[in-house]
Amino acid sequence: MALVLTVLITAFLLGSIPFGFLLYRLATGGDIRRTGSGNIGATNVLRSGGRRLGALTLALDASKGALAVAVALHWAPPAAPWAALVVIVGHMYSPWLSFRGGKGVATALGAFAVLTPWALLAAVVVFALVFAGWRYVSLASIAACVGLALVLLIPALGPPGEPATPALQAVAVAAALLIIARHRANIGRLWRGTESSFGRDAGGDAPGAAK
Predict the structure, then answer these.
(1) What backbone phi and psi angles, to 5 degrees, belong to 94?
(2) Would you call 26 exposed, middle or buried from its count of C-beta atoms within 10 A (0-12, 13-18, 19+)?
(3) Residue 195, by phi and psi: left (phi above 0), alpha (psi -120 to 50) or beta?
(4) In 10 A of CB 44, how many CB atoms?
(5) Measured between alpha carbons, how far is 107 from 135 in angstroms, rounded to an integer?
(6) What angle, 0 to 180 degrees and rounded to 10, lies between the N-to-C axes of helices 80-92 and 2-16?
(7) What digits encode the pLDDT tens for the residues 121-139?
(8) Burial (0-12, 13-18, 19+ Cβ within 10 Å), 159
């Protein structure tokens, strides 16, 4: 039990590292929370600090999700699904930023890439299709999270002979709900028709990669 707790605390601390905030501060001296949408994720960093900074933020946010799950799989495999959820929560509610943070998409990408690559692949396909059709990163991110959860909940949608465990299903649903909740402002703009699509620089989370 102590080992499991240690793994989960480690996952939270990894998730809480605000790479977007740190990279933007190092590169510009500014505070990413006072720029653009105010989000610390890769989309806002890309828009405010350029493609290289945005890509590096995306890679590091995904890497901390992957590392948290890899550590759990090595030291306490049954805790791996919960480590995936905890690292996402750590990213969303970083204690270093007064328990504020990003939207969790990139961190979830890394976590589920290690935890369940088949389901993650399906989610990436959903993201690509929705983004190609509507050009909204926020909408594609939400659809991808829902798609990942559905693949794990419905055995017929997943790879044969690899049913998801109840813990993995619960974590996928919880992660999807958290990420959707963090996109509530985007959902409002989508509903009103004011959300920025890829390539535009108006308010909201516009161009770039997952947040």
Answers:
(1) -75, 125
(2) exposed
(3) beta
(4) 27
(5) 22
(6) 30
(7) 999 999 999 999 998 999 9
(8) middle
